[in-house]
TrEMBL record:
<dbReference type="InterPro" id="IPR036188">
    <property type="entry name" value="FAD/NAD-bd_sf"/>
</dbReference>
<protein>
    <recommendedName>
        <fullName>Hydroxylase</fullName>
    </recommendedName>
</protein>
Length: 456
């Protein structure tokens, strides 16, 4: 049984998983959440992206299973869909449609964000009961600052969101910032005299729009049409619980999708993919269309030497956000939770823990960062991006060629999926068989039409 007190700021997915990773390693965990959790899975204001399509990639699923065995099955029992790409996911990239066959390497999960978070939260709280760690959840409570000094964070200042708006201090041996993309930790650290982290930004200027539908006759396959230079608009169509499907539309700046539901079908028609358009015409809309605009890749380098004071750790979106079209953030939350658990397994809270954990958490997000930034560079303007170095330019050339071949070549495709589903590091793309096929074979093209029937 561990000692010490950890305060986790933000009870979204990353905060819940961080609390789960701390179980058994500290005496108490206080989870501070600005919202009140709904009684049943439902959208809440603190997770504004929660109305949009959220697919959970296999790399995240594996990390989640390692943290909490059987949780993937629990999600499916609650109504989530289990998808095995490329058989169950039709993907169109810049080079055409991917082949569709049973590969047996990856399992992804599709459901509403509300169901996902509620299922994970229930499991973590159930584990807490057995762990010996006391977990206190402070709902409707907002973190408003940090305690301590430039070298050491010693707690959090919080304010109740009810009428009294009472403030109090929560001393802690470790503060985990899991407050998401709107994290105010850089300002809070500056108030303590600590340096703000260096930020890297690559913004493709993607706008999002999502609407829920109920198909009379559902497809047996998910569809993903990625924005590409000649048509910088995309769509994703995936099932969620309760017989509904989510349609998410995306477009780079100047090509943003509408946020009026009456214009959604027109945008889909403009993609020039009749299979999706005709199918959607037969589906009943069951929600308004919701927009989302802040989609940049943004990394705060808390992992740099001296980047965090002792006692402070930032995880997931609070440290690094990704362009959501690649569907990586939740998987990175799970990988970060696992990285935190492994660091704690190495000797619990100890001097130097925060810096070591911050480096481990940053490594957990490296693959997602490299793939998202590599793919977004062509769309980012000089004002929206830190300029690429020579290594990044070479990487972009290689990955572009590899991605084209991956659509039709099972050897290259397997490596590409391993990395983009965050189940293997980018070095997997450099294995001899993959590199030779990528560089020596002619640049490939994908299929001209979506393979509506899978290969047997
Ligand atoms: C449009 C869109 C679509 C996406 N689609 C996908 C996808 O398909 N697949 C995928 O893996 N990822 C996707 N993502 C990314 C994913 O949503 C995030 O990576 C993920 O939610 C990160 O979890 P988090 O816990 O760090 O942050 P959040 O889920 O945002 O949770 C932050 C929590 O902190 C609380 N909070 C904030 N400030 C305070 C405070 N001061 N005090 C107390 N509590 C506070 C909030 O109320 C909230 O509960 C998408 C993102 C967007 C924007």
């Amino acid at each position: 049984m561990g000692t010490g007190h950890a305060v986790v700021v933000g009870g979204g997915l990353a905060g819940t998983l961080a609390a789960g990773a701390l179980l058994g390693h500290v005496e108490t965990v206080t989870l501070v959440e600005r919202d009140r959790y709904p009684e049943r899975p439902a959208f809440r204001k603190g997770v504004p992206q929660g109305r949009h399509l959220h697919v959970f990639l296999s790399g995240g699923r594996r990390a989640l299973e390692e943290l909490f065995p059987g949780l993937g099955d629990e999600l499916e029992a609650a109504g989530a869909h289990r998808l095995e790409p490329p058989r169950d996911v039709l993907t169109k990239s810049a080079n055409g449609w991917q082949r569709r066959f049973h590969e047996g390497r990856h399992t992804t999960t599709s459901c509403t964000r509300a169901l996902f978070d509620a299922t994970v939260r229930a499991r973590v709280l159930a584990e807490a009961e057995k762990s010996g760690t006391r977990v206190e959840v402070l709902q409707a409570t907002e973190a408003i600052g940090l305690l301590g000094g430039a070298d050491r964070v010693t707690g959090v200042r919080v304010r109740a969101r009810d009428a009294g708006r009472a403030e109090r201090e929560l001393p802690a041996d470790l503060v985990v910032d899991a407050s998401g993309r709107g994290s105010r930790a850089p300002r809070w650290l500056a108030e303590l005299g600590a340096p703000a982290p260096r930020e890297e930004v690559v913004d493709a200027g993607i706008g999002y729009c999502t609407q829920m539908f109920r198909p009379a006759e559902p497809l047996d396959v998910v569809m993903v049409i990625q924005p590409r230079p000649d048509c910088p608009r995309g769509a994703a169509w995936s099932p969620v619980e309760g017989g509904n499907w989510l349609l998410t539309l995306s477009g780079v700046r100047g090509q943003h999708p509408p946020t009026e539901s009456t214009e959604v079908l027109g945008f889909v028609e403009s993609l020039g993919e009749p299979a999706l358009y005709e199918h959607l015409r037969s589906c009943e809309p069951v929600s308004p269309a919701y927009g989302f605009r802040d989609t940049s890749n943004r990394r705060r380098h808390y992992d740099a030497p001296g980047g965090v004071p002792e006692g402070f750790l930032a995880v997931s979106d609070a440290a690094c956000t990704f362009n959501p079209v690649y569907g990586q953030g939740m998987a990175v939350a799970a990988l970060s939770g696992l990285a935190l658990r492994r660091c704690l397994d190495d000797g619990g809270l100890r001097p130097g823990f925060a810096a070591a954990a911050q480096r481990a958490v940053a490594r957990a997000g490296d693959t997602a960062w490299l793939t998202a930034v590599g793919a977004d560079r062509p769309y980012a303007t000089a004002e929206d991006a830190t300029p690429p170095g020579a290594a990044e330019r070479l990487r972009s050339w290689y990955v572009g060629r590899l991605a084209a071949r991956a659509a039709i070549d099972p050897v290259v495709g397997a490596a590409f999926r391993d990395v983009t589903y965050l189940a293997a590091p980018p070095s997997r793309l450099l294995s001899p068989a993959v590199a030779l096929r990528t560089v020596l074979l002619p640049k490939a093209r994908g299929l001209a039409a979506p393979p509506l029937r899978g290969e047997s």
